[in-house]
Structure formats: structure tokens, C-alpha cells
Amino acid sequence: MTDSKARRRALVLLSGGVDSTTLLAVARAEGFEPTALVFRYGQRHGIEVEHALEIARATSIEARVVELDLRSIGGSALTSDEIAVPRDRPEAEIGASGIPPTYVPARNTVFLAYALAWAEVLGIGDVYIGVNALDYSGYPDCRPEYIEAFERMANLASKASTEGGLRFTIHAPLISKTKAEIIRWGEALGVDYSRTWSCYDPLEGAGGGPAACGRCDSCLLRRKGFREAGVADPTSYAASGERK
Questions:
Q1: What's the whole-model pTM score?
Q2: 3-state helix, strand, coil in the chain (%, to 5)
Q3: Residue ranges with strand state E in the chain
Q4: Per-residue model confidence as pLDDT tens digits over 194-208
Q5: Of 209, 185, 174, whose CA–CA distance to 50 is shortest?
Q6: Can you tell me the distance from the alpha carbon of 29 to that of 7, in angstroms, rounded to the nearest whole number?
Q7: Structural domain range at position 165
Q8: Three-class SS state of 166
Q9: Total domains in the fold of the chain
Q10: At what angle do helices 179-188 and 18-29 cross, to 10 degrees?
Q11: Distance between CA atoms of residues 104 and 46, nearest Å
Q12: 165 lies in a domain?
């Protein structure tokens, strides 16, 4: 175990989901002291921000929330009430039938640009993002070539790299893992998945609060991952209810 005094700092993009919460634990296991960057961007499932902050508190790390208004741009089922979130798609169809309406235009580029700016101010060269190119919904900004291209751009576009000698590295350790592999990795690192949130389209739960729908792509991939990992999914899914 690396002594905490010798640990380097890293920025971790934290959404409160399975992947980014595992990512936080991976960054620590790789010898970094993480600082979390959380985005409230007008997403339909804004409850994920509260879960991300709870995870940050539970793991005693600093977290900063960036407020963005991607809802004013729209173009995604996650940022527009006029576009429906797909439900009940067959598992084989997810990621194999084109880019779904839950794709948010340029989201990871926007997020990484903010992360790059803050990292430059803090003098941090290591940025972690939980993109995945296997168990995902077909988003083009989750591919290895995208991450490689952004890293090249980051080192061309900043004063810290061109004059200060700081080398930016975009870490994407989950990119080639299945959801089941990610969950098993997190289990081995002691991740508490009961704190995480995955649902894109929350419903009104029996107690009046939000509940995971269990039917959107994100819920279906989560359920598949826990099932294949042989780990109990701690999420309570709504049997019925109204959209939250």
C-alpha cells in the first residue's frame, strides 16, 4: 500500500454510477489521492449528483460540482422531456442498433474539457474517466480512440503542458471490461454499490421518492452486470409508478 503522504493527486469524474464509483476505488488502488468532479448538467436523472456526493462523503474525498445547462441545447433523451428514454430493449440490441437517444451531444468532451481546466489550475496531470467500450450503449465518446485523441489534444492545448512540462494522462481503466468484470473488481476493492445510482428515467417510488425504473438501457446493463458477476444488485427497482 502506497503511503498517503506519497500519493499523487488525480481528478476523477464521478457520476455516482457503478462505473465511476469503481473508478474512484481503482484510482486509490493505483496510488492516487482522488478529487472528484461531479456534473449537474440538466440531466433527467439529476438524483445521480446526490449519490455522487454521498459517495464522496463516505470515502472522505473532496468533490466539486460543476453546474452546466446542457438542457438548453437538448438533443438527448437525458436533457429533453420531449425525447423518450428507450425502455425494455433486448440486451442484444443495446449497443448494436446505432447510437441511442440517450446520447448527450459532446458530453464527455465537455466534461473532460472542464476536468482539464481544473487539473491545469491544480497542477494535476492525471484524470480518470469511467468510459467503457464493451457493456455500453454505443456512445462514440466512450471508445479508446476518442480517449487517445483527447489526451493528445490536452497536451497540445494547455499552458501547463506546453510551457510548464506537465504531462496530462487520461486514465480509462474500465474501457475494455465488461460490466460484470467492473463489478467484481469493485467488490474486490470494497466498493459499496448500495450508494450508486444508474437509472436514466427515475419513477415515483412507493415511499414518494425516486426509484430506479429497471427498464431503461442503464438499468438493464446494471442488472445484467450484477447477474453475470454473481453479485446481488442492491438497487430497489420500481414495480410501477409515475415518472419522477
A1: 0.93
A2: 40, 15, 50
A3: 8-13, 32-40, 63-67, 126-128, 169-171, 203-204, 210-211
A4: 999 999 999 977 666
A5: 209
A6: 10
A7: 4-193
A8: coil
A9: 1
A10: 50
A11: 14
A12: yes
